[in-house]
């Protein structure tokens, strides 16, 4: 099929000043939608994607041929070594081939998942003047709310607003967190930290290491929450909710609502990650790819814009960024050999 680009991306305009005008509203994409716009402004227009002719989903055939594994963790509660081995094998296989999987029966109560989604929506839908006070590009602030962290650098702006909270290892003063969702941010983070420890045990075992290995090298010490709000979009084919990217940290645990739109690039095709009620999406980040010497894959993904919305998601990143020690991470010694030499040099993870 010939890719016809009917959505010519205009480049002969003063993009920087249009970005600045958008930034100065401190009201994000939601502000545009609330103002009643019916066309997507040109700063949001995506250049054509080399992997695909448009921003819609791939064909039904591809979607059914491939799907992200859903792994049921319920068996871990049985304390059965056979069941655990089975689960570890599935986690390992998914991390090697997809870099992505979903987990069911992960132990975080449905009520907590509902409450954090409501809390995030509540943040974005609170009184605009209160919310604007938190709008910033100063990444040293305890809570960073803005639209498009890379607004002035990215080739196209995403149809998405975000707030970021650094939750661990430093305990945040509760009064630094946004009031509308303070309690649930703390509760959700506690639950995600506990789940993170378990996931890093399973991933360690899948790599043939002692169960505590990845936790011992501090993979589960740092937690950043990225709370995303994707407003309904009048022309979803012109833009994206989140452009194609891979996550830079060790591991991401993503909670998405029922709307959908997340896609993973697998064998050069965009595959949907369908919402599964009560499940969480887990994906390998660049740092885990590095320390596993590429056994586990950090895979590119994106989020489509949608006529229906808002869509809410919470991405929990396990990271080193806020740790006091500036550590070096390289391929784990036990995973390299003469036949399998290190594919990366040690990397200073400061500032990640
Ligand atoms: C991210 C991300 C996906 C989503 O924040 O890195 O990929 O569904 N988010 O919001
Ligand atoms: Ni991501």
Map the helices and strands.
Layout: H1 15-24, H2 28-34, H3 60-65, E1 70-72, H4 81-97, E2 100-104, H5 110-124, H6 128-132, E3 143-146, E4 161-168, H7 182-206, H8 213-216, E5 222-230, E6 240-245, E7 251-256, E8 262-266, E9 269-272, E10 280-284, H9 286-291, E11 301-304, E12 311-319, E13 328-329, E14 347-348
Parallel strand pairs: 1-2
Antiparallel strand pairs: 2-10, 3-4, 4-5, 5-12, 6-11, 7-10, 7-12, 8-9, 8-11, 13-14
Helix pairs in contact: 4-7, 5-7
This protein binds N-oxalylglycine and nickel (II) ion (NI).
Which key terms come to mind for this protein?
Oxoglu/Fe-dep_dioxygenase_dom; Fe2OG dioxygenase domain-containing protein; 27% helix; 20% strand; binds nickel (II) ion; binds N-oxalylglycine; 14 strands; metal ion binding; 352 residues; Jelly Rolls; alpha+beta; IPNS-like_sf; 9 helices; four-stranded antiparallel sheet; eight-stranded mixed sheet
General description of the model:
The protein is of the alpha+beta class. The protein has one domain (7-348): B-lactam Antibiotic, Isopenicillin N Synthase, Chain (Jelly Rolls), CATH 2.60.120.330. The chain is built from nine helices and 14 strands. It has helices at 15-24, 28-34, 60-65, 81-97, 110-124, 128-132, 182-206, 213-216, 286-291, and strands at 70-72, 100-104, 143-146, 161-168, 222-230, 240-245, 251-256, 262-266, 269-272, 280-284, 301-304, 311-319, 328-329, 347-348. The strands form three sheets. An eight-stranded mixed sheet has the order 1-2-10-7-12-5-4-3. It has a four-stranded antiparallel sheet with strand order 6-11-8-9, with no helix packed on it. Residues 1-6 have low confidence and may be disordered. The site of nickel (II) ion has 3 residues, from loops. N-oxalylglycine binds at residues 226, 228, 242, 247, 254, 256, 262, 301, 303, 313, 315.
């Amino acid at each position: 099929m010939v890719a016809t680009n009917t959505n010519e991306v205009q480049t002969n305009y003063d993009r920087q000043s249009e970005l600045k005008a958008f930034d100065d509203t401190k009201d994000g994409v939601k502000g545009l939608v609330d103002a009643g716009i019916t066309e997507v402004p040109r700063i949001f227009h995506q250049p054509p994607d080399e992997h695909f002719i448009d921003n819609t989903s791939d064909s039904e055939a591809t979607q059914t041929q491939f799907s992200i594994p859903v792994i049921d963790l319920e068996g871990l509660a049985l304390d059965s070594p056979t069941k655990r081995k089975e689960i570890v094998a599935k986690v390992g296989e998914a991390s090697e081939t997809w870099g992505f999987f979903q987990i069911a029966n992960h132990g975080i109560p449905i009520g907590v998942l509902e409450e954090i989604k409501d809390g995030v929506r509540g943040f974005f839908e609170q009184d605009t003047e209160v919310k604007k006070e938190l709008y910033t590009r100063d990444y040293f602030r305890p809570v960073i709310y803005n639209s498009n962290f890379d607004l002035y650098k990215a080739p196209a702006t995403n149809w998405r607003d975000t707030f970021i909270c650094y939750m661990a290892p430093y305990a945040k003063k509760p009064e630094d967190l946004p009031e509308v969702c303070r309690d649930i941010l703390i509760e959700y983070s506690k639950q995600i930290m506990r789940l993170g420890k378990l996931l890093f045990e399973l991933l360690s075992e899948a790599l043939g290491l002692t169960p505590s290995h990845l936790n011992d090298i501090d993979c589960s010490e740092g937690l950043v929450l990225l709370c995303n709000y994707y407003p309904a979009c009048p022309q979803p084919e012109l833009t994206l909710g989140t452009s194609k990217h891979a996550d830079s940290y060790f591991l991401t645990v993503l909670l998405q609502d029922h709307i959908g739109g997340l896609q993973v690039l697998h064998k050069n095709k965009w595959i949907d990650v369908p919402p599964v009620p009560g499940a969480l999406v887990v994906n390998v980040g660049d740092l885990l790819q590095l320390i596993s010497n590429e056994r586990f894959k950090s895979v590119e993904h994106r989020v489509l814009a949608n006529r229906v919305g808002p869509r809410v998601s919470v991405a929990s990143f396990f990271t080193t960024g806020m740790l006091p020690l500036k550590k070096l991470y390289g391929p784990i010694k036990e995973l390299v050999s003469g036949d399998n030499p290190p594919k990366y040099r040690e990397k200073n993870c400061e500032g990640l």
